[in-house]
Amino acid sequence: MESIVILLLALAIDLSLGEFPRPVHPVVWMGKVTSLGLRIAPRQGRRAQLIYGVVVVVLALAIFALPAYFILFYLRGLNTIAYILVGAFLFKSTLSVKELGRAALRVKQLLEGGSLGRARVEVKTLVSRDTSRLDEPRLVSATIESVAENTSDSVIAPLFFFLLFGVPGAIGYRVVNTIDAMIGYHGEYEYLGKFAARLDDGLNFIPARLSGLLLVTAAFLLRMDGRKAWQVMLRDHASTESINAGWPMSAAAGALRTRLGKVGHYQLGDANNPLSPQLIPSVVRLMGVSSLLWAGFGLIVEVMKLVFTTQV
Questions:
Q1: I need a labelling partner for 53 at 20 to 30 A (CA). Which of 4, 20, 196, 295 fits?
Q2: How much is the pTM?
């Protein structure tokens, strides 16, 4: 019963308040720990960098996931209300539904207001690519791609690991995902980030595909082009370098009947609709409905667990 309340409360907090203040946000502290580790990281030697990258991930998991487990284990036997509140706070920190939608809609407003420079800065908070020279269609594409990919990273995957391993599982996933987002595996940190990147690929393998399916389902429910979403997802999901990102992004491209892409890297979908700011609210709605569908599934799973354990 506690897991059901934690799930509902975490979703309610996210949808009503958005992100926690930075000083108390666990994901912000994950980023600080990662940045601290990078300051003393070896700059030469592939093997040394690879080993150090493994150590960073293991230590970060020990710093965040293990305390979450022990704190909740202690509180569960001490006070149910405290257990639920702390559990909901920690789990909510791994989710980002409202803020993801807000950020995307801010880009739309800036583009419609002619503030291309400010829109480039805003999009930079959503993607890792250089946005300084992107024109309006490329900014729209980057925004849609980010919302689609983060439907998996910021909603579907955390809840997936919550259902499997509880709050510590969601925290552990967010640790790996944050390190991968900060370090990556190209350029200066190529070998430092290889372990985090490969681990993140493995953790997201199922959630990314679930996200694609949920986005297709949401497209049907919202009376967008669900059939096209399915077709484009099957056709274009392997176009991206990431083995996971292509699934939700290509599903979104098909649903919106547009072509997304990063110049020189990949293209997803067909150019039936131009990349205009008006498409951004549509992908936000796709993300929202997909999140609600997955949350509903999660609640059903938790209720079934409760019924089964009660009967046993």
A1: 20
A2: 0.92
